[in-house]
Design a protein that fits this description.
The complex is a heterodimer. By secondary structure, chain A is an all-alpha fold. By secondary structure, chain B is α+β, with helices and mostly antiparallel strands. In chain B, the strands form five sheets. In chain B, strands 2, 3, 4, 5, 6, 7 and 8 form a seven-stranded mixed beta sheet that branches. The chains are: A mainly alpha, B alpha+beta. At the A-B interface, helix 5 of A face strand 10, helix 3, helix 8 and helix 10 of B.
Chain lengths: 421, 413
């Protein structure tokens, strides 16, 4: 009976996913290993009390993502293309360099997530990481765009494991829902830091580039823009619904059980086991492995896309290796380097790379947001689809808040000791 | 030779050595001379813009530009509208390399300095799309110009002679003014044009297709993915779209009409010539992924009593594409398929020979409602170039050609 229902849910989810596209993939990949860890800590440390931030985060995400999707539909060009054409080669080069550093760190974090997740299933990292790397490498290099997209979409369906494990954790629903709609800010540095980290992990520079390219690649027409906007909004909501369930799963079990510290996302899953049951814990781990593997593929892929876009080189999954060598070499190098880093380096040695990547993300985001705002206001590019005055007020406010928060996160990355224990 | 990266920000002086400002851009007037730099745009120290006509440039080098006259006597070349501005319109933009049939991004532009009787002119030589140009852009202003030449010399330099460059301007009015045409593009193989199109933005794709004649546009369209065909067709007026679809092979036309909304598709069919519309409508009736949906209705058919001479006559009058002339089909008066004759056999036979005697045996055909997998298997098994499609009573309906099967197999991988 239960299995039947699960199957039905999965079926309808599959149909749903076939209708929508770029928004949902971008949004799901956003919940990568780093994201899951951040949400887990938020739940474990602060219980339900940070849930309210998800609503403003979702709104901010919608505002920002809507802008890039609109630019993609109207101009038919990627964000890297537009930046190159408007701001020249040097700006593009610096931006792409930072993006590569940022995304290398993200990819390492995801392979580390895979290693810790598979470790819990009893698979050695020395097997899991190279095997995972080989699979996603082979998929993109040998597969066609259609196959790759299908595999990614199937990966997205498995994010359902989080809502399920959230339900299995039997949270205090009334408290969870109240905390979601009633803001309750705590003026304590640990709380503020956590809040900023939540924003930082949800709104990232690479997403903007990826979403716009995906919208362009999909060939969405201007007259279908309304539907594309719904795809983006749905994607953003889905991201934060997943975040919501991760937070409440950890809040209901770890926080309620007095366990406020976790070392990584895998650790959260272990801690869940005695409190929420084997099934919830296993689903949590499975979700982590899936998210890590999906992001470890999409993020390097996205990087290869924009770098080639910005420099006018051949790119695309449908091209063969010899047709788009830079594209495939970049993808290969990012994956190989990240997988090697996870296998060879101890966790302590991985931290500087991850911090560097956070710093790169932090430096990038303000620039990317400002470029996006300026580009989407250009009448010659956007015509009647340029930002309205009201939208500009919202978008600039959102961006300035985001920039301020990101700079704060950046500062705290340099002083990790300030991280409250 | 001098690079744009070397003249950008070049200090500019008048004949007496007074500082005029810095050179920010140069413009070419394609209506007069498509290679000569016609206007030099200078940013004055007061943040104003000064435009200098080419006849007033005394000399130009990596160190400075000097005018032939005093600051007060400087004339502008003319209005900015008809100028291709190198920094604004060319640098960092996508252009088409007609020679290598691909879309590239311009990193730098190469000029030639040409001393004239009383002034000096700059002529555009080539667009620089390689690593060397990128390095110069990256380090421009950070290292001395001669050092930069040394550094960039290490890297491979890819230059495209200016005459092989096709700028892409989506605005038709400006395209006319700048004399940008896609004539050379139209002479490339449609498959190459299609590859180029796929690298362009929507507006640019539209601009290129708009300028092609119906037949070329149709050939190019059939080479790009169906969903993209639909997007592009919808951006045209229904009349133009119908004209293009009319020129497409009926099977391709049916595919793209299926991708369009039912209203648009009906509108296009209504605008098409009756004969073509009828063929496409018949194809649309077949379910997707069947032999019927895969076939084309442009094929060679003669009565079963025809001779080789009759077949050659039919070949001469055939208007369909070349890939459809591998086989001639024979039908009886009820249009029931009775045989298939490879064109090669006809060429080798006497003109009075009856075609009936030249048919291949066994005659392979397929029912229209059969799946496309069966089509692929038959092609593979019998090494076919074409396969006739029939209905239950054996009436000839159409033909599947090898190129369609190849596409099917490649896309499925």
């Amino acid at each position: 009976m239960n299995l039947k229902r699960l199957k039905r849910i999965r079926m309808s989810a599959l149909i749903f996913l076939s209708v929508i596209g770029p928004g949902i993939i971008t949004a799901n990949v956003d919940n990568d290993a780093g994201g899951i860890y951040t949400y887990s800590i938020a739940g474990a440390r602060f219980g339900y009390s940070l849930l309210w931030t998800l609503i403003p985060i979702t709104l901010a995400l919608v505002v920002v993502q809507e802008m890039v999707a609109r630019m993609g539909v109207v101009t038919g060009k990627g964000l890297a293309d537009l930046i190159r054409e408007e701001y020249g080669l040097r700006t593009t080069f610096i931006l792409m360099g930072l993006l590569m550093v940022a995304n290398l760190g993200n990819t390492i974090a995801n392979f580390a997530g895979l290693a810790s997740g598979m470790g819990l299933f009893g698979v050695s990292r020395y097997l899991a990481v190279p095997l995972g790397a080989f699979i996603i490498w082979g998929l993109v290099v040998k597969g066609t765009y259609r196959i790759v997209e299908r595999v990614f979409l199937i990966g997205c369906v498995f994010y359902l494991t989080y809502p399920i494990s959230g339900f299995l954790a039997e949270p205090d629903w009334s408290r969870a829902l109240t905390s979601t709609v009633v803001p309750s800010i705590q003026f304590d540095s640990a709380y503020i830091y956590m809040m900023i980290a939540l924003v930082g992990t949800t709104i990232t520079p690479w997403m903007q580039f990826y979403l716009q390219s995906a919208v362009v690649e999909k060939g969405i027409k201007v007259k279908n823009y309304i539907q594309a906007r719904w795809d983006v909004i749905l994607g953003c909501v889905v991201t934060d619904v997943v975040a919501f369930f991760i937070i409440i799963a950890c809040a209901a079990t770890l926080h309620a059980g007095g366990q406020h510290e976790i070392l990584d996302a895998g650790h959260a899953a272990v801690a869940l086991r005695p409190l929420a049951g084997r099934a919830a814990s296993a689903l949590f781990v499975f979700g982590l492995c899936n998210a890590s593997l999906l992001s470890a593929s999409v993020i390097p892929l996205a990087t290869a896309y924009y770098v080639c876009e910005g420099f006018g080189l051949e790119s695309g999954i449908d091209k063969r290796f010899y047709e788009a060598p830079t594209f495939y070499w970049l993808y290969t190098a990012l994956i190989v380097f990240s997988a090697l880093a996870v296998v060879m380096l101890s966790e302590a040695n991985q931290i500087p790379i991850i911090v560097l990547s956070q710093v790169a993300n932090g430096i990038l985001l303000p620039f990317v947001l400002i470029f996006m705002l300026r580009l989407s206001n250009r009448a010659d590019l956007m015509g009647e689809y340029r930002n309205s005055r009201a939208f500009n007020i919202i978008a600039w406010t959102t961006s300035l808040v985001m920039i301020a928060l990101t700079l704060l996160l950046l500062v705290s990355a340099f002083f990790p000791k300030r991280l409250p224990s | 030779m001098i690079y744009f990266t070397e003249i950008e920000n070049l200090p500019t002086f008048d004949a007496k050595g007074n500082d005029l400002g810095r050179l920010v851009d140069v413009g070419v007037d394609p209506s007069q001379n498509s290679l000569r730099v016609a206007a030099f745009i200078v940013r004055t120290p007061q943040k104003g813009t000064l435009c200098i006509t080419h006849e007033q440039i005394q000399s130009i080098s990596v160190r400075a530009a000097v005018t032939t006259c005093l600051a007060g006597e400087i004339r502008c070349y003319g209005s900015d509208e008809g100028l291709i501005r190198i920094k604004k319109d060319v640098l960092d933009q996508q252009v088409i390399d007609v020679n290598h049939r691909k879309v590239v991004r311009v990193n730098d532009v190469d000029f030639d300095i040409q001393p004239m009787e009383r002034h000096t002119e700059l002529r555009i030589l080539a667009a620089n799309v390689g690593l060397a140009g990128a390095i110069r852009r990256l380090l421009q202003g950070l290292a001395a110009k001669h050092t930069l030449r040394l550094i960039s010399g290490i890297f491979p330099s890819t230059v495209i002679p200016w005459e092989y460059i096709n700028l892409i301007e989506p605005d038709p009015a400006r395209r006319l003014k700048l004399r940008i045409t896609f004539d050379r593009l139209a002479r490339l193989h449609p498959a190459d044009v299609a590859d180029i199109l796929e690298d362009l933005s929507r507006d640019e794709q539209k601009a290129v297709l708009e300028s092609l004649d119906d037949e070329t546009a149709a050939q190019v369209l059939t080479e790009i993915p169906t969903h993209l065909q639909a997007v592009l067709l919808e951006s045209f007026s229904p009349e133009r779209a119908a004209d293009i679809v009319e020129e497409m092979p009926p099977d391709e036309a049916a595919d793209v009409l299926q991708e369009l909304s039912p209203e648009t598709s009906a509108e296009l069919l209504a605008d098409m010539e009756t004969e073509e519309a009828k063929e496409v409508r018949e194809l649309l009736a077949f379910e997707e992924n069947t032999a019927g949906a895969l076939m084309t209705t442009e094929y060679l058919v003669v009565g079963e009593t025809a001779t080789v001479a009759g077949a050659i006559e039919a070949l001469r009058n055939f208007e369909g594409p070349l890939e459809s002339v591998h086989v001639i089909y024979l039908v009886n008066p009820d249009r029931v398929l009775t045989g298939a004759v490879p064109v090669a056999r006809i060429l080798l036979a006497e003109s009075t020979t009856m075609l009936r005697g030249l048919t291949t045996s066994p005659m392979i055909s397929i029912l229209a409602h059969r799946g496309e997998n069966e089509v692929v298997d038959l092609f593979h098994k019998y090494n076919l170039l074409a396969l006739p499609v029939v209905d239950e009573k054996g009436h000839l309906l159409g033909m599947v050609t090898a190129d369609d099967v190849l596409e099917l197999v490649v896309n499925r991988k």
